[in-house]
Amino acid sequence: MSVNVGILGGTGAVGQRFIQLLDGHSDFELVAITASDDSAGKSYREAAKWRVDSPIPDWVGDIEVRETDPQAVPDDVDLLFSSLPSGVAEVVEPRFTEAGYVVSSNSSNSRMADDVPLVIPEVNGEHLDLLEVQQDERGWDGALVKNPNCSTITMVPTLAALDRFGLETVHVSTLQAVSGAGYDGVTSMEIIDNVIPHIGGEELKMETESRKLLGSFDGTEIDHHDVNVSASCNRVPTLDGHLENVWAETRKDIDTDDARGAFADAPTLDLPSAPDPLIEVFENPDRPQPRLDRTLGGGMQIAVGGLQNTPSGLQYNCLAHNTIRGAAGASLLNGELLVREGWV
Amino acid sequence: MSVNVGILGGTGAVGQRFIQLLDGHSDFELVAITASDDSAGKSYREAAKWRVDSPIPDWVGDIEVRETDPQAVPDDVDLLFSSLPSGVAEVVEPRFTEAGYVVSSNSSNSRMADDVPLVIPEVNGEHLDLLEVQQDERGWDGALVKNPNCSTITMVPTLAALDRFGLETVHVSTLQAVSGAGYDGVTSMEIIDNVIPHIGGEELKMETESRKLLGSFDGTEIDHHDVNVSASCNRVPTLDGHLENVWAETRKDIDTDDARGAFADAPTLDLPSAPDPLIEVFENPDRPQPRLDRTLGGGMQIAVGGLQNTPSGLQYNCLAHNTIRGAAGASLLNGELLVREGWV
Amino acid sequence: MSVNVGILGGTGAVGQRFIQLLDGHSDFELVAITASDDSAGKSYREAAKWRVDSPIPDWVGDIEVRETDPQAVPDDVDLLFSSLPSGVAEVVEPRFTEAGYVVSSNSSNSRMADDVPLVIPEVNGEHLDLLEVQQDERGWDGALVKNPNCSTITMVPTLAALDRFGLETVHVSTLQAVSGAGYDGVTSMEIIDNVIPHIGGEELKMETESRKLLGSFDGTEIDHHDVNVSASCNRVPTLDGHLENVWAETRKDIDTDDARGAFADAPTLDLPSAPDPLIEVFENPDRPQPRLDRTLGGGMQIAVGGLQNTPSGLQYNCLAHNTIRGAAGASLLNGELLVREGWV
Amino acid sequence: MSVNVGILGGTGAVGQRFIQLLDGHSDFELVAITASDDSAGKSYREAAKWRVDSPIPDWVGDIEVRETDPQAVPDDVDLLFSSLPSGVAEVVEPRFTEAGYVVSSNSSNSRMADDVPLVIPEVNGEHLDLLEVQQDERGWDGALVKNPNCSTITMVPTLAALDRFGLETVHVSTLQAVSGAGYDGVTSMEIIDNVIPHIGGEELKMETESRKLLGSFDGTEIDHHDVNVSASCNRVPTLDGHLENVWAETRKDIDTDDARGAFADAPTLDLPSAPDPLIEVFENPDRPQPRLDRTLGGGMQIAVGGLQNTPSGLQYNCLAHNTIRGAAGASLLNGELLVREGWV
């Protein structure tokens, strides 16, 4: 099986991660890359300032970049990944879904829309069925699926595992890498020898997206979980890898062994990019660390450590690679699920 | 008034901060510096590898370093500051207090001992009276006062202010600078492009020291506060300045204006090194930041920002300079209080 | 004596340094700040995102920002400092000089123009007399003086001192701080755990500006020095302070003591911002270091170290604070010289 | 073919790189690891604090660490790699060579000894024949081969290529990563927001080792090249990858195309760890960069960029991974050459 895929907005940092991950992918063949109008017509090599730490694949360098317009994308593309700026995505993604394309998008727009599934395959893959409602309501032939924000993805697989004990309250403090803001998002003057204790909109995303992801789909709509998440988000001088300090309070008392058991039971899917296990637990309290552990499982695993019982709930740290599991890899995995579930 | 002071263990990172802060001090005159035996007899300039970012004061460079022994310290020294390694301090500090010296110590040993006052002057200066019990029980002519750990000091002045609303539960996540581990404590290979989500013993210090500091002294002993503090401590790639994300839950409902009022009411003391105000509140949510705000009030102020109401309590960030307010400046301020209260 | 001064383009990183340096200046009173049109009319506090590590002076925060236009600047301003982007400066600075203003500019345009003095007061203050030629040729009532590029300023005072031995060839490799590129010039993704071995145009600036600075003025024009400078410029992850590795070959053989003597003889001027001595020589081979030594002499000193004789010439390192001695402080010192020499 | 190999001093940073590189090696099977006495008897997993960014191979974790003593190493080990501290190596390596072992060592001792070949296979593999002299003179059954210092290796392959034009004078300024000093070699307090313009002994190593490497072997001794190398060495805040600014002056005039040709002609060996090409030339002047390009060719390639003609010679930058091509990979490649040349 080979599925022809394209990338909307493929020259930026997340776009380059898509290309790294698609290079040699077992099921997907990259056949189209779009970008802004001034890049259209150039070779990808020329249009993108390649910045990741493996050389640009030759076959990608030669691809001619297209306009981000349904007319410009060949008909035999079955699946589109989107890493467009959210303002652009808001306007452009519906044009593609109207034209019949299935879009797996990392852009932050429309994530909380009632008829848009927000999916982490190992957590709530069944929310994909919301696409029937979406197609009905919007009259689309195509479909739009979103993955959550990078800081949300890092934590929610662990919360889903703990929800068997009745998740009630979560405090989470994040130490987020600069790549999460995009290539130009954080200047060096801002972050060398410094921390920025604020990331616009991030805390709200963690609080609301978590509730939707952990919610249940009744065939018509998503019933959001009532967990109360309180997030404090910080930017720190790391390149990749979001580390998060979590306290989770549950209805039933749990100890660290209960948590280990729950994490070990987290599902592993039979999809090309799905890690096994989903959650890797470290016993050394000084792990996971961003630089040493962000590429576990090809950057798709959730690393957990520092498990402790406290009077304020189960305390632990979790870590994931923010531009792989938290962005391009998230959309890719959603794409793999869309194929398996017959939407592509 | 001029008080002759000395430093026990004055060649290390905290010792150098003591010297910076004593240079030009209105009331204290530095007359003696001790260090390990292999430094004794050398000039301070020769013994210390001066590493702070202002030149070594000439008059200090010429001081001859002494052995860390009561015999080696001149009799006219009225007050000693200690930045000895805690293992050494455990053995040596009692020798000085037995010999009649008053010691204001930053070392971590004995902080939780029943008869040792653990003091932040603006928070619990009245705990100094415990020294009468100490002298009685130990038969000392001198006295030993401790200041808390740097991460504790950063947070507790804000907690003390909020306790008027009945402090019950605190979650705190720290982003601590490398200087907190001493000059050689964190290697560059460990921390460049990285975070270490564990600092040995630090979480327990924050939890237990906070209870003692916020406790009340009944004339005989300290009744520790029953607040439940749960800390998650991280080392980040900053040089100086501990930033902390706090959630404080109180018996009475409070909003951010209540908190602003409480912070504004925090006491300011009439001591040379006491900042005014004690707590500076920023309204821009991306402040305070370690690099930009750690030297507020000469490094003695507590900076607060990001005030929010959440269902999980009052959320905010606080920041202090860990080797000034959190170490050398803390001991110095305790020394100033000891003088004012007649113990020196 | 008090001279009313203004800043053209005062909201950026160099503009903020101007304000830090003018706060409390003995001779200059800041009375006007201009910026781009969308800032005009706002208070400085509102228009500038204040980013330096001392609080914004209150009296400056209240100044109303003006348009960068001669009409908008009050007549009683005697001297203007310019930190405009060079493209803007190219157009705007002549409008001010035509209108009679004396402009001491840090912008890179016109530095190599035949009738524009490029000045480091301790090196070639006599080049100011070129202003007579400038006013004649251009018909200006005002005058335009430039200071060189930050990487040039760091090195040229040492070269000027060594020129008594007949400077012939210079190899210089720079390790430049990110602030040299402006607040947004280097992204964190580019420089964390990295070096960028290229700074556009920088090598040529060092090579040509050095020749002009070391040249002689014959009353009509500057005769450029024939020293052959070959520069290799690198951006490194430091915030402030350009460090440079220099090899200087001279006609006469010199040893390190000759060099020490020459550096000690470097002139110190009787101007408010002039450091004394101009050049500070370190004997410890691991100094100067950017973080520890960049603020020597208020950031106006040139620190030198690592002096060695080699078969390829005298080898040494030099360091200066790139946004003080290398930018705002450079223009300020030129302004002080302009006043002393009667041009203001 | 499979050769049994061991590592002397295998628990440190370079030892861990050896293990990464030997994991899956086509010709070598790792069968023994030695370390200091207090590690002997432990499993490798227990003895080594594993710090590289790929998980410890399981089969290595279970190896029992041995004493660094010929008696403790099994007889069927054919080749030993050494990453012992040089003081230890000075004493211990001869015990192994006397006992008949062939040792390929990265330790800095004895590199300049007359009868010890200092080898980069692509540069001076023929120097291996000096081992006959060594065995004769020392009465060893075994043999000792050294690779040069990491900063030397980065540059010398480019100098060897240019020597066809008659290499006369080299100026080189280095920007070296912290890993070059070993895991604990540079503290975070020393290097965050800083550069250290001095690395003890490094400049001399670059100057003398280069001459030996570029020298010729006449069957009896090495005739050192008479090139005059002048080095200025700096430590910068990068984790891995030494970047070097080079100016090379040659007897014959050369332009950048001549240099490109010479670099393209650099030999590529048919050895498992030898890169092809040896030297990769970048045309974009801002490359190579340490973080982006240090893993080229598995970390064994020399990256070159910024080629320019200057009046002071050919100017360019070169980069290599200091703990792969500059340390463990260098010894490994020497080991592969020793096998091919029949010494093992």
Automatic annotation (TrEMBL), chains A, B, C, D:
Q: Which GO terms describe its molecular function?
A: aspartate-semialdehyde dehydrogenase activity; NAD binding; NADP binding; protein dimerization activity
Q: Does the keyword Kinase apply?
A: no
Q: Please list which residues make up the signal peptide.
A: none
* Residues annotated as transmembrane: none
Could you tell me the Gene Ontology terms of the biological process aspect for this record?
methionine biosynthetic process; threonine biosynthetic process
Query: What are the Semialdehyde dehydrogenase NAD-binding domain coordinates in residue numbering?
Result: 4-131
| InterPro entries assigned | ASADH-related, Asp_semi-ald_DH_pep-lack, NAD(P)-bd_dom_sf, Semialdehyde_DH_NAD-bd, Semialdhyde_DH_dimer_dom
Q: Which UniProt keywords apply?
A: NADP, Oxidoreductase
Residues annotated as the enzyme's active site: 150 (acyl-thioester intermediate), 242 (proton acceptor)
User: Has UniProt tagged this entry with the keyword Oxidoreductase?
Assistant: yes
Q: Which family does it belong to?
A: Belongs to the aspartate-semialdehyde dehydrogenase family.
Its name, as the record gives it, is Aspartate-semialdehyde dehydrogenase
Q: Which organism is it from?
A: Haladaptatus pallidirubidus
